[in-house]
Amino acid sequence: MNIEEIQDKRIAVLLSGGVDSSVVVYEFAKLGLHPDCFYIKIGPEEDAEWDCSSEEDLEMATAVAHKYGCKLEVIDCHKEYWNQVTTYTMDKVRAGLTPNPDVMCNRLIKFGAFDEKRGHDYDLIATGHYAQTEIDAEGRKWLCTSPDPVKDQTDFLAQIYDWQLKKALFPIGHYVKDEVRQIAEREHLVNAKRKDSQGICFLGKISYNDYIRRYLGEMPGDVIELETGKRIGEHKGLWFHTIGQRKGMGFGGGPWFVVKKDVAQNILYVSHGYDPETAYKQSFPVHDFHWLTVTLGSGYFVTSDGNVTKYPDPNVTFKIRHTPEYHPATIEWTSSNEFIVHSKEKIHGVAPGQFCVIYDANHHRCFGSGEITV
Fold first, then answer.
1. Residues in contact with 369: Cβ distance below 8 Å, sequence separation at least 6, in sequence order
2. CA torsion, points 203, 208, 214, 216, in degrees to nearest 10?
3. Which residues belong to the active site?
4. pLDDT truncated to tens, each residue of the chain (374 aa)?
5. Is the bond into 255 cis (omega within 30 degrees of 0)?
6. How far apart are CA 369 and CA 107, in angstroms?
7. 202: which residues sit within 8 A by CB, 6+ positions away?
8. Where are the alpha helices (DSSP H) in 139-287?
9. CA-to-CA distance for 30 and 183, rounded, in angstroms?
């Protein structure tokens, strides 16, 4: 972030109560700026049995905003989250897929519902994501990776719309996590030693399985060994399992890997062993690909104004889950937003419904993401 980028701009900061977004406010303060801060209120449905940390989050956000002389406004996006993100999640898991609620939360809530309610009054929306942006020679804005491979969050941002990317600002994206912690401690921020949130955005201490169970309940069915057809146990619902899973199975004689789901018959297929061949794939189709900055097709960029530009490198890198690793691959095009990924190495746990995030060969610029349809 440089002063030229933000000069004379109206800036909103999404302040969550965590250390990352708090250091974002500091980054503005050291430039003599005091942007308006907003806390997005989601929280679980009004149910006493759901444990939520939102009250503590708001206290932290309030303290940080006050420290740097910024206004803080609470924006209620409760209905939008539960109507949009939860509906997406339940529809996907009911169909036997592996969704990512945090990905859709960024598109629909942080850069979506918030913009409709208040963000439209601002030129830029700053968040504490570990990501960067850059402008190319043609003036196009790209989503780029963070220098911290463990914390990089471009995979969670790869479904936002181009207009949302144009407004997005990531002031701590050039730092690694340890540097952010050091700044927070040096500045005596109230949440400097607060642990990073785990699990799904806005669910606090609620586990993913409890989240699913709350809406879909349980639907027991058989667990079958793929190679032998032998029944080895019973699952409580296909939606509690994902392809590649090997922990939390609860069956003896393991390890067992989830390798397939039969939604129609409600059967969970597993494979036995420490490294079963059935747990790996090397090629898989991706559909409904969402392009961030430009459309890449058969080696060409197609820009929003219709201009076509040759892209010199047909090779890409990708990831299918939030891990530090990027896998090299080539793409076989089947249509403008559908293709087959041919990985140069076998990939563990490729699951339908997961987002496959595509980057350039140096995993610097993020092109976008689409759903795996294996």
1. 103, 155, 158, 159, 289, 290, 355, 356, 357, 358
2. 140
3. 105, 201
4. 666 678 889 999 999 999 999 999 999 999 999 999 999 998 655 554 555 567 888 999 999 999 999 999 999 998 999 899 999 999 999 999 999 999 999 999 999 999 999 999 999 999 999 999 999 888 889 999 999 999 999 999 999 999 999 999 999 999 999 999 999 999 999 999 888 776 666 666 678 888 899 899 999 999 999 999 999 999 999 999 999 898 878 788 878 999 999 999 999 999 988 778 888 999 999 999 999 987 766 555 555 455 555 554 568 999 999 999 999 999 888 876 788 999 999 999 999 999 999 999 999 999 999 999 97
5. yes
6. 12
7. 42, 43, 54, 81, 105
8. 154-157, 162-167, 177-186, 208-216
9. 12
Q: Model-level pTM?
A: 0.90
Which of 240-244's residues contact partners 24+ apart within 8 Å by CB, and which partners? 240/209, 240/212, 240/213, 241/268, 242/98, 242/349, 242/351, 243/98, 243/349, 243/350, 243/351, 243/352, 244/279, 244/348, 244/349, 244/350, 244/351
Angle at 119 between CA 114 and CA 122, to 5 degrees: 165
Tell me which long-range contacts 113-120 makes (C-beta under 8 A, separation of at least 24).
113/77, 113/80, 113/81, 113/84, 114/14, 114/38, 114/40, 114/75, 114/77, 115/164, 115/167, 117/75, 117/77, 118/12, 118/38, 118/73, 118/75, 119/12, 119/167
Residue type, 322: H
Radius of gyration of the chain (CA): 22
For residue 294, the one-letter residue type is V
